[in-house]
Design a protein that fits this description.
Strand 15 and strand 16 form a beta hairpin. 30% of the residues are buried. The N terminus and C terminus are likely disordered. A seven-stranded antiparallel beta sheet has the order 2-6-7-1-5-4-3. The protein has a five-stranded mixed beta sheet with strand order 10-9-8-11-12. It has a two-stranded antiparallel ribbon with strand order 13-14. By secondary structure, it is of the alpha+beta class. Bound molecules: zinc ion. Zinc ion binds next to loops.
């Protein structure tokens, strides 16, 4: 949340720790309509800034000086930096320049709805989106359509414009209100909730208004449009720490895969757990809704498909896509499902994070390219969100005074390393075990990587044989026990990703060996075949390279 306010020109603003508290708001029909109108104006304003900014970006990139600056080798850091910043200056592509732009764009009727500071935060938001394109981190920016709208707006201070205040209320307990223009939206505050009470005892940096769509207008707390409002308070300080969440002092090595996690502490019990296995039914329900929507789309738009049922190429002047009433219902239902899935995932992540932190708060893991994973294991990553898990862990660990060390994969290569002989040997994807001619192993590879990470010295990242000799004596049995427990759970019918290398008696093999690509098959409980992707090593195999040696787990 540490945003630099360029207009103040204070280069060394110290970041204070920040946490969030979300409170539901009560909005009557009139208030909801007015807030909706403000948000609509915010949307148009955001699009206007984004569009103007995009023009600036395009012009800047078309300048021959841009190519010249790109041609400067990265080794000449200063020169390169100076060249780019001169270009940014000339074309007005900076957060500060965007604030200026916002000041010019916020005219007449817009100004009635949008305070100057809110306009600035929207301009910053547009700048950040465009800057990602500028830096090559994103391909394009997305304008906010009228139907989707702008769903959040934030201030950057809590004394003017949209702000949150506490006023004396009934029974000696203050009542909170979000003030915006002439409206007062009451917040529902449960003062008996220690998290809420803790949050409201802290200083409010600024408030953010969030609008969420519900499954239907009849959902609890929804207005006529089927929308709910809530306020997110950005607070100074550290989040509430529940007494039930103990903090351990061990050092833990983690090895994260798209669908599994190996946890190896230096002393305590090692674990190999599937990530978010509980989310599979939710994901399946969403898939069914997607297929329903596809059928509805086809039924309403036959002109967009050729006689073989293939979608036609989109041309200019083609008829608009029609949305049937039923389609809109399904879409809303799917959106609600997705929201629930996200919330469920978050709670599962939270539980896992607390389990980890209860063992230790010094955590060493390999830094992984989540983007690369997204390309290769889209579905698992989409469902399990391993990157979010790490972010969550990092925040929690930091708030308890520990550290999360992310070591670069390229230099450590833990998944290839063998501490017995010091050799780096790439394992193909299907090989789930580490077994070396020098006598180390067999041991499940993810657990082994996590073990190597646990005893890594964050100051010196090259693994050496000597440092592992003594730990290995104690760890080998623990790792085997962890794998044994995972196998047991699989036998009891718990779903395990195939990447854990657990085979079961009576497991079915894939019919054709050609299916044995990186997307390995996974037979779930009901015998349905689902693609289950599993972890790779960064210097990865080419798709389709792995073959043979496959075993498929099925439960039942
Ligand atoms: Zn070896």
């Amino acid at each position: 949340m540490g945003k630099k306010h360029a207009e103040k020109r204070t280069p060394s603003r110290t970041k204070t720790p920040t946490f969030l508290l979300e409170l539901p708001l009560v909005a009557d029909a009139g208030q909801a309509a007015r807030v909706g109108a403000h948000l609509e104006v915010g949307r148009q304003f955001y699009n206007a800034v984004l569009s103007a900014g995009q023009r600036r970006l395009r012009r800047m990139r078309a300048d021959p000086a841009w190519q010249a600056a790109r041609a400067i080798p990265r080794s000449r850091k200063q020169e390169r930096k100076a060249a780019f910043s001169a270009l940014r200056e000339r074309y007005g592509f900076s957060e500060y320049a965007f604030h200026e732009l916002a000041r010019k764009l916020r005219v007449a009727w817009l100004a009635e709805h949008l305070d100057a500071v809110l306009a600035q935060t929207l301009a910053s938001r547009a700048y950040r989106a465009l800057n990602r394109v500028c830096l090559g981190k994103a391909r394009r920016v997305r304008f906010k359509s009228k139907s989707r709208g702008l769903d959040s707006i934030e201030n950057k201070r809590n004394d003017t414009g949209m702000r949150f205040v506490l006023q004396p209320g009934a029974a000696g307990r203050p009542q909170g209100y979000l003030l915006w223009h002439d409206d007062q939206l009451a917040a529902l505050i449960d003062w008996d909730d220690p998290v809420v009470a803790h949050g409201l005892a802290h200083e409010i940096k600024y408030a953010r208004l969030v609008r969420r769509r519900t499954s239907s207008p009849r959902a609890q707390g929804a207005d006529r449009e089927g929308e709910r409002y809530c306020v997110q308070l950005v607070l100074t300080g550290l989040p509430h720490h529940k007494p039930k969440h103990a903090v351990g002092s061990d050092t833990i090595g983690l090895d994260l895969g798209p669908a599994s996690l190996a946890i190896v502490p230096r002393q305590a019990e090692a674990r190999l757990v599937p990530l978010c296995a509980e989310l599979r039914p939710d994901a399946r329900a969403i898939r069914r809704l997607q297929r329903k929507m596809e059928r509805q789309r086809r039924a309403a738009n036959p002109e967009h498909y050729d006689d073989k049922g293939r979608p036609k190429k989109r041309k200019q002047g083609a008829p608009r896509w029609k949305q049937s009433r039923g389609y809109q219902v399904s879409r809303r239902r799917k959106a609600a499902r997705e929201r629930k899935l996200a919330a469920h995932r978050k709670s599962l992540h939270g539980r896992l994070v607390h389990q980890i932190v209860a063992v230790g708060h010094t955590i060493i893991t390999e830094k992984l390219s989540y983007r690369g994973w997204q390309k290769r294991y889209g579905r698992s990553v989409g469902r399990c969100a391993p990157g979010m898990l790490i972010d969550h862990l990092r925040r929690t660990v930091a708030s308890t005074g520990g550290t999360l060390h992310e070591v670069p994969t390229r230099s450590t290569k833990l998944s290839q390393y063998c501490h017995g002989c010091g050799a780096f040997v790439k394992k193909p994807l299907w090989q789930r075990w580490h077994q070396c001619p020098c006598g180390v192993g067999p041991v499940q590879r993810d657990l082994y990587s996590a073990f190597l990470a646990a005893y890594l010295d964050p100051a010196d990242l090259t693994p050496s044989c000597a440092q592992y000799v003594i730990p290995w004596e104690g760890a080998e049995a623990r790792l085997l026990a962890a794998h044994e427990r995972a196998t047991q759970r699989a036998n009891e019918g718990q779903v395990v990703p195939r990447s854990m290398g657990i085979s079961r008696a009576g497991a079915r093999l894939p019919k054709s060996p050609s299916e044995a690509t990186q997307e390995l098959l996974f037979l779930s409980r009901r015998g349905k075949v689902e693609a289950w992707k599993h972890r790779s090593e960064p210097p990865a195999l080419q798709p389709g390279e792995s073959s043979g040696g496959l075993c498929v787990n099925s439960s039942c």
